[in-house]
Automatic annotation (TrEMBL):
<dbReference type="GO" id="GO:0016887">
    <property type="term" value="F:ATP hydrolysis activity"/>
</dbReference>
<dbReference type="GO" id="GO:0005524">
    <property type="term" value="F:ATP binding"/>
</dbReference>
<keyword id="KW-0547">Nucleotide-binding</keyword>
<keyword id="KW-0067">ATP-binding</keyword>
<dbReference type="Pfam" id="PF00005">
    <property type="entry name" value="ABC_tran"/>
</dbReference>
<dbReference type="InterPro" id="IPR003439">
    <property type="entry name" value="ABC_transporter-like_ATP-bd"/>
</dbReference>
<dbReference type="InterPro" id="IPR039421">
    <property type="entry name" value="Type_1_exporter"/>
</dbReference>
<keyword id="KW-1133">Transmembrane helix</keyword>
<protein>
    <submittedName>
        <fullName>Uncharacterized protein</fullName>
    </submittedName>
</protein>
<dbReference type="InterPro" id="IPR003593">
    <property type="entry name" value="AAA+_ATPase"/>
</dbReference>
<keyword id="KW-0813">Transport</keyword>
<dbReference type="InterPro" id="IPR011527">
    <property type="entry name" value="ABC1_TM_dom"/>
</dbReference>
<dbReference type="InterPro" id="IPR027417">
    <property type="entry name" value="P-loop_NTPase"/>
</dbReference>
<keyword id="KW-0812">Transmembrane</keyword>
<keyword id="KW-1003">Cell membrane</keyword>
<dbReference type="InterPro" id="IPR017871">
    <property type="entry name" value="ABC_transporter-like_CS"/>
</dbReference>
<keyword id="KW-0472">Membrane</keyword>
Amino acid sequence: MTRALLACIYVPDPDPMTQNPPKLAATAESKKSSRNQRLWVFFKTYRTWFLFGAFFLLATNAMNLAIPAYIGEAVETLRDAAAQGDSLAAGFDAVRDQLVNIGLIIVALAIGGGIARTLSRILIFNAGRHIEFDLRNEIYDKLASLGSNFFGGMSTGDITSRSANDVSFVRVFFAISFLHIINTSIAYTIAMSRMIEINWKLTLVCLIPYPLILWVLRYLVHAVFQQTQAVQAQMSELSTKVQENLGGVSVIKCYAIQDREIDDYAVMNESFFEKNMRLAVLRGGMQTLMMLVAGVGTLAVLIVGTTMVVDGSMPLGDFVEFNSYVVALAFPTAAMGWVFSVWNRGLAAFERITEILDTTPRIQEPSEDERRELPALVDNVDRGEVSLRNVSFAYPDDPETQVLHDINMEIPAGSSVAIVGRTGSGKSTLIKLIARLYDPTRGEILIDGEPLTKLALRDTRSEIGFVPQEPFLFSMTIGQNVRFGLDSLEYDDTLNRPTPTRPLLKDDTRAAISQPERIAQAVEVAGLSPDMSGFADGLDTLVGERGVTLSGGQKQRVTIARALLMDPRILILDDALSSVDTKTEGVILDHLDSIMKNRTSIILTHRFNALSRVDKIFVLDEGRIVEAGSQPELLAARGVFYEMCERQRLEESLKS
Ligand SMILES: Nc1ncnc2c1ncn2[C@@H]1O[C@H](COP(=O)(O)OP(=O)(O)OP(=O)(O)O)[C@@H](O)[C@H]1O
């Protein structure tokens, strides 16, 4: 019977031939199989906890279900005593002692059963907690390895909902499902075998409602599964809405659209509420159905059983014992209703989590055999040659639109180059490829002669200092934000260990300096020193969420200092000085001049007054390099670059 009940938990996927096109059906199949494999791995990892938990469940049921037999014995003893009437007087003490003994055994069994029950729950719930813990770490590791195209395809709210709510549902799935499926199976096995032994006909009577209920349950379980998925999806939408609105609160206020946003949220919330209510009704229906099984069974036993007792075909003690089993099975039966919904919710949640875990990072580490080392960095040796060979690129989410076409670039080690071009010409995309945030769809990129794809990602990231267009600061202190790229040992400034890298300032000739000194130098080179007096706690000043307490220019300079501290072979600035005034920009570029002399720098800028400092300028137009040369050469050529400079000069003169 329990097997039949369990069969109902399984919700068949829609028929692939009729419901989905073949491609989607294959994806759904593979998702399901990956989900099941992962579930099995978790179960296997914590099987010892589950097995001991099951053992204590067996002990609990063995003790608890032994009690009805003693109750039956007590009833029979009392019935015999009552039948003897007056003649019992002499033997009254013996009957009382017998009943007290039975009572003591029942108490002992109840205490033993209680202890075993507690232990079973500790073990099984702990296994669930461990699975939750592992799953959270696994999701976080996976998220850390995924690239920007994944985050472009899934909203932050959705990811948060999956890694917070769904993980909890999976814990409950493991703990509650295992606990009650095993408990109900054991309870039914023990109780049913004794009930059949007492009276098989009466046992059949109490099974009367099951076929009908299993039939109804099959549809109910499917409905609960679908409703659960709808609730979880709506929860993700709500989280996304809250997250977006909190992030864009200043935009909402500027456009005075609070009321519209509040209304939108209220509509979404109402839909969430309604979906939850529908789910609650379905779940309630399921539990009621299971209670009905227990209730109808008890009623049938009372009607048929009492007739049997009255006509003498069943002893009263057996009837009481039988009835006690029916009552004892009521809770395990009703609990299965709960298990059905927890099971479905857990499977739906785990499927959503599997979608994250099964995502393959587009940027792959090279295999051990393929991996190549970059030559060690040596002082006074030019380093950081960058070559692009026939590089073309289209974003993975829009593969039809070619953003870069056949780019060839040679950037000698130690040189400085600028990439300029109209907005949308592909400048940022090009440097994202050099920083290996994406791989080219065609062609290859080499650093010091080694293909980027053959270098360990960690090496690539530490050799390339990338300062993105939009600075991102963590809600930590300024100092912690600057040191963010260092590994955990270096990060711990209490160690005050000397770093084997050269100083960043040209007037510091020491071969090795301590980390705090180096941080101070990075701050200085990035042009942040004059602002430090304005911060209450200097480097220890907290910057608020995303650096909200700093100006745009200050944020940019913190991210430049962060990149410099890594002592990168190649420094890439993606319009990283756009928010600082031209005077500060000049100071920063002066500092950079001195530290860039033996490393490569690639500057992407819209401000042409910085271009006189670079060795070579590449002009991009519609994803193609249309001009390349030094500033005087390009101006003399009177081509695209000349036109852009002229337009900018005109705009500036109009402004002034
Ligand atoms: N993640 C993305 N997915 C799809 N297309 C993208 C993505 N990012 C950028 N693009 C497209 O690629 C093209 C080049 O964009 P890119 O940001 O490289 O230009 P840009 O020259 O740096 O522009 P700007 O000077 O305005 O920063 C644009 O048409 C843009 O719409």
